[in-house]
């Protein structure tokens, strides 16, 4: 919640805190510091503020692949069509004119959050789908696409660690953890394993490689650990999975 008017900021924080964890900032500069630290899923920001206005904040969010998927709601007393257009050009997802109904805004945010949670489940479902079809990402999900490419580049490296992953993503381990929790509800380690298993599913259905060879090619040093991880996700052994695919 980014709002320089203290009374309105505290009122909205109090109202929304019954449903969400709310972090507040008084201007765009403070907000970017909080966004970098906490990686919120939704940002509600006033437009006219000292030390960093809402339009600039919105552009900074949308121009950064780490933050681009954050849903941005701009609140403003500027009500002309041109002002609204400027808000959307800056990347705002919703432009709300003051005065506004706080209950209506809260319900909008609740609906947005529910939609984001559904998308999170859909993404994870597609990632672990037995069909292993190519996933169509929203342009705002560039971070996830980039993550998958890095993991695929290190697929055979069983020693690929979170430190190295975070470094290649140009972020910290803490931020990486929060980001994956936000995007797919997994830790970075779980996500790496998901991508390894996704590739294994593809190889089981398209190659004559042995289970041991597939395990090695997807970064599992030991076949029994590969089989254990595979069973946890697909509720079957790789051997049985392949046989069913061939039927």
Automatic annotation (TrEMBL):
Residues 145-244 form the HTH araC/xylS-type domain. One of its GO terms (biological process) is phosphorelay signal transduction system. GO terms for molecular function: DNA-binding transcription factor activity; sequence-specific DNA binding. Residues 1-113 form the Response regulatory domain. The modification 4-aspartylphosphate is found at residue 46. Keywords: DNA-binding, Phosphoprotein, Transcription, Transcription regulation. The keyword Transcription regulation applies. Coiled coil: none annotated. Transmembrane segments: none annotated. This is DNA-binding response regulator, AraC family. It comes from Bacteroides graminisolvens DSM 19988 = JCM 15093.
């Amino acid at each position: 919640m980014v709002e320089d008017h203290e009374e309105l900021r505290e009122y909205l924080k109090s109202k929304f805190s019954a449903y969400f964890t709310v972090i507040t900032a008084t201007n765009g500069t403070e907000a970017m510091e909080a966004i970098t630290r906490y990686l919120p899923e939704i940002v509600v920001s006033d437009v006219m503020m000292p030390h960093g206005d809402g339009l600039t904040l919105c552009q900074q969010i949308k121009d950064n692949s780490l933050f681009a998927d954050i849903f941005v709601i701009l609140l403003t007393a500027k009500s002309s069509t041109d002002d609204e257009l400027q808000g959307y050009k800056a990347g705002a997802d919703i432009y709300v004119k003051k005065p506004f109904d706080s209950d209506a805004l809260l319900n909008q945010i609740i609906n947005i959050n529910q939609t984001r949670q559904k998308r999170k489940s859909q993404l994870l479902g597609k990632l672990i789908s037995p069909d292993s079809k190519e996933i169509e990402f929203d342009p705002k999900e560039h971070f996830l696409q980039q993550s998958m490419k890095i993991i695929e580049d290190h697929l055979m490296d069983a020693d690929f660690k979170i430190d190295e992953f975070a470094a290649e993503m140009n972020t910290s381990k803490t931020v990486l953890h929060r980001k994956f929790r936000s995007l797919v509800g997994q830790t970075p380690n779980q996500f790496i394993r998901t991508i390894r298993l996704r590739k294994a599913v593809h190889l089981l259905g398209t190659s004559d490689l042995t289970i041991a060879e597939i395990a090695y090619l997807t970064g599992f040093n030991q076949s029994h650990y590969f089989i254990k991880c595979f069973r946890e996700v697909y509720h079957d052994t790789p051997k049985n999975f392949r046989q069913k695919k061939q039927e």
